[in-house]
Write a sequence for this structure.
């Protein structure tokens, strides 16, 4: 049983430097850093002290408002530093990794016969709960609320994204265990989307409702899948899990170990040899980007995540908890003479205002981080709708977030969206407005006021 | 690299001071700024507001150039007409001539300079006081204004109107993007209501007509629309003249051909909304047809003062007056138009519809386009509201189905 979802509105941003399908084992990172800020709206309560030994899968901190949600260490080793910022906010927990990794043993779980509570308890105890996110609000799921459905996108359409068909290859057993377990946590369906022309291992799983998606980005966004199949209404909750995290969940259920290993794409036009790495969550970026990657003194931006929604990191920073791609693109901190009126061939544009990317639809571009203009009020209308497939008015919902009208935000569909759904509208925005940030702040406001 | 680094140093020096916006306005005019993205999307599309506005200006340049020649041509043509000589227009023979250009440039360019000079000065002052960047909106407004005023408007009058339009029409709302009314039309409306004797009547549309009025050399400065409203017509003007624009009128709005070229540029570059342009024309044609119907049903006699304009074949409404100019350059202003795609259809249609209605029923000043657009500017948020409610209701309905 499968359904087709065809997206027409959207934009494929074709960039140079997609990762070649070759895996290299990354140099084992000496340290592993977990940043509480990766888990939005979680207030951490520490469970470890500096100097303490931890095993992989042992809790580092809890969610203060819901202590059953634990965040565990991806590696075994010694906690060497807990960095704090203003008001003693915990910025990061750094662990010196052991040479020989030891795992906390949670014990294998027979998914088919296990009860829903046992599965839930296992996911919470092992830290795998962090991979389960919910909408509304795009935060880590509240384990007490049963979702009406669970959504997994197995198709990556974002620019330079890791090809999920490739990274999930050979993981069918883990994926099956994970989706079967998740299926027990909801009364509704587990919706899984795969690329129409791909050969995703997800397509062969049972206990799921399969959707074949096609069309330009954001066809692979889980938000698009939700909106096209079973949109979130007021008072409802859905869960989303990233496909690569299913592998970790599945391995936990099958072996009892929290093995935070993942296949990460190193991509971008600044990378000499873009390829895949096998590494662990929280590893130092430096272990991957320099060998046949970027120049040490190059003026590049390193992003943990994709170029649309990722987080800027320094070379001594670390892979964040959710990303499976590291993108490196040139910085654009230079002036361009008459850059605002001369004809432009080397940048992407959806208009034809002396921009000629429409002439070369298959060209791969080398974009930098220049904003190509200054921040302005919203002026141009109609351009967002061309790249926004959801049944929502993008500009109006953004404006309602800006003037913080909760009723209007609710009516216009804030329960259905996540910041990443507004990545493309932000990309094409002539006024250079920070759409994802506006939506994030709007969601935070609703979370605080409505809950 | 000298200029680039010097300007960069100056920018750093001015940073945080009151003069920073003024300096940045000039700096960013020369160089695309070195600003980079922060968190959010790390890459951005090539277009910015300056580029978008620049396309609109370029789409208007042909109209301006034509307007310059036409100002001269109409001047000499009216003098000939006063002397009893009827001119046949010939593009290279007596239209694109040095004499026409000199007269035209001498009357039109001061309008452009005053419009930009005064308007940008106000913009800079507000930017410095309020500490925001100088916004690009006025680049288009400043170009529109000279095109929609009569050639012989006194410059002081234009200055007063521009100040009023920029301050009341835009800055009090918070600048480009926040305004409710189209600033260029606010300026036009101010002129119309503050100096009605100047802005209507049959003297101001041809250069020299006002000065020569009452003298033995008096020439006619009437527009075609004015003549139609009186139930007359102007001598020696055929449909092709109207289409190509060899007729008296506001500076830049006479050549329908070049406006269509501008429309093509705007639509092709995706800067202007084809939905608005198209639906405005449909609205105008609809109203024109209705009036034609009224005439052919003989509900209205030839003695009626509305007869003259009602009797024009409906499609000719598009090539007389400035309905086409308004549809292409004014109604499409994204800030003051409807912002939803469905709303744009309704908004445009009503502009066209009301324009022709005002044109016919207001013989004292028979051009209704600017009033119609201003009126619809006010109603655009209402139109959007109902379009959005459709989406909201669909969402509510989904919820009810679930709970039921």
């Amino acid at each position: 049983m499968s359904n087709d979802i065809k997206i027409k509105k959207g934009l494929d941003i074709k960039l140079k430097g997609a990762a070649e399908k070759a895996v290299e084992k990354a140099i084992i990172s000496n340290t592993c850093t977990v940043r509480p800020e990766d888990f939005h709206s979680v207030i951490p309560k520490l469970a470890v002290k500096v100097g303490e030994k931890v095993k992989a899968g042992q809790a580092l901190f809890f969610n203060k408002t819901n202590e059953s949600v634990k965040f565990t260490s991806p590696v075994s080793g010694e906690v060497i530093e807990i960095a704090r910022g203003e008001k003693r906010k915990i910025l990061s927990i750094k662990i010196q990794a052991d040479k020989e990794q030891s795992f906390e043993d949670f014990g294998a779980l027979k998914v088919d016969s296990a009860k829903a509570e046992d599965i839930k308890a296992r996911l919470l105890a092992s830290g795998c709960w962090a991979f389960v996110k919910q909408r509304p609000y795009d935060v880590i799921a509240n384990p007490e609320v049963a979702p009406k459905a669970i959504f997994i996108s197995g198709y990556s359409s974002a620019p330079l994204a890791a090809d999920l068909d490739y990274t999930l290859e050979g993981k069918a057993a883990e994926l099956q265990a994970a989706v079967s377990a998740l299926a027990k946590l909801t009364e509704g369906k587990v919706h899984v989307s795969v690329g129409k022309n791909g050969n995703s291992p997800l397509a062969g799983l049972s206990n799921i409702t399969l959707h074949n998606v096609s069309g330009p980005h954001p066809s692979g966004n889980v938000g698009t899948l939700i909106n096209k199949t079973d949109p979130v209404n007021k008072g409802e909750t859905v869960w989303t899990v990233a496909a690569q995290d299913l592998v970790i969940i599945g391995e936990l259920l099958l072996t009892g170990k929290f093995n935070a290993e993942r296949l990460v794409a190193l991509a971008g036009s600044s990378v000499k040899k873009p390829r895949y790495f096998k590494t662990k969550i929280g590893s130092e970026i430096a272990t991957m980007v320099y060998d046949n990657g970027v120049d040490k003194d190059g003026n590049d931006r390193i992003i943990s995540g994709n170029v649309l929604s990722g987080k800027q990191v320094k070379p001594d920073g670390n892979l964040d908890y959710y990303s499976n791609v590291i993108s490196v693109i040139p910085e654009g901190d230079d002036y361009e003479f008459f850059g605002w009126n001369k004809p432009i061939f080397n940048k992407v544009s959806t208009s034809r205002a002396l921009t000629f990317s429409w002439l070369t639809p298959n060209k791969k571009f080398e974009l930098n981080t220049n904003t190509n203009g200054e921040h302005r009020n919203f002026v141009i209308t109609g351009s967002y709708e061309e790249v926004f497939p959801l049944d929502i008015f993008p500009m109006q919902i953004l404006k309602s977030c800006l003037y913080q009208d909760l009723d209007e935000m609710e009516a216009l569909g804030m329960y259905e969206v996540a910041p990443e759904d507004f990545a493309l509208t932000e990309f094409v925005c002539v006024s250079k407005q920070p759409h994802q940030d506006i939506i994030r702040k709007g969601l935070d406001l609703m979370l605080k006021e409505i809950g | 690299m000298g200029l680039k680094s010097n300007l960069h140093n100056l920018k750093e020096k001015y940073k945080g001071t009151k003069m920073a916006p003024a300096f940045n306005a000039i700096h960013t005019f020369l160089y695309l700024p070195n600003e980079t993205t922060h968190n959010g999307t790390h890459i951005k599309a090539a277009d910015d507001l300056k580029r978008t506005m620049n396309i609109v200006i370029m789409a208007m340049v042909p109209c301006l150039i034509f307007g310059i020649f036409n100002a001269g041509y109409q001047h000499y043509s009216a003098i000939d007409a006063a002397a009893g000589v009827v001119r046949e227009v010939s593009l290279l023979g007596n239209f694109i001539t040095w004499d026409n250009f000199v007269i035209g440039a001498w009357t039109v360019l001061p309008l452009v300079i005053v419009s930009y000079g005064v308007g940008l000065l106000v913009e800079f002052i507000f930017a410095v006081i309020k500490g925001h960047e100088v916004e690009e909106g006025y680049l288009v407004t400043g170009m529109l204004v000279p095109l929609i005023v009569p050639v012989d408007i006194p410059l002081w009058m234009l200055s007063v109107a521009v100040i009023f339009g920029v301050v009341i029409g835009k800055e009090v709302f918070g600048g480009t993007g926040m305004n409710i009314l189209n600033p260029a039309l606010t300026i036009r409306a101010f002129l119309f209501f503050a100096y009605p004797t100047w802005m209507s009547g049959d003297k101001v549309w041809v250069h020299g007509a006002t000065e020569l009025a009452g003298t033995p050399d008096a020439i006619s400065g009437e527009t075609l629309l004015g003549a139609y409203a009186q139930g007359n017509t102007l001598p020696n003007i055929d449909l092709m003249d109207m289409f190509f624009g060899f007729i008296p009128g506001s500076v830049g709005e006479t050549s329908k051909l070049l406006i269509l070229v501008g429309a093509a540029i705007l639509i092709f570059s995706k800067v202007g909304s084809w939905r608005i342009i198209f639906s405005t024309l449909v609205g105008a044609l609809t109203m024109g047809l209705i009036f034609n119907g009224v005439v052919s049903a003989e509900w209205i006699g030839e003695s009626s003062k509305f007869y003259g304009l009602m009797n024009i074949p409906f499609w000719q409404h598009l090539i007389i007056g400035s309905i086409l100019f308004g549809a292409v350059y004014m109604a499409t202003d994204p800030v003051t138009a409807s912002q939803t795609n469905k709303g744009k259809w309704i908004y445009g249609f009503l502009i066209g519809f009301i324009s022709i209605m005002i044109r016919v029923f207001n013989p004292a000043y028979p051009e209704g386009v600017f009033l119609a657009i201003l009126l619809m500017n006010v109603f655009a948020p209402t139109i959007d509201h109902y379009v959005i409610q459709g989406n909201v209701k669909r969402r509510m309905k989904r919820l009810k189905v679930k709970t039921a």
User: Anything to note?
Assistant: Chain B has two domains: 48-271, 273-397. The first strand of chain B starts at residue 31 and ends at 32.
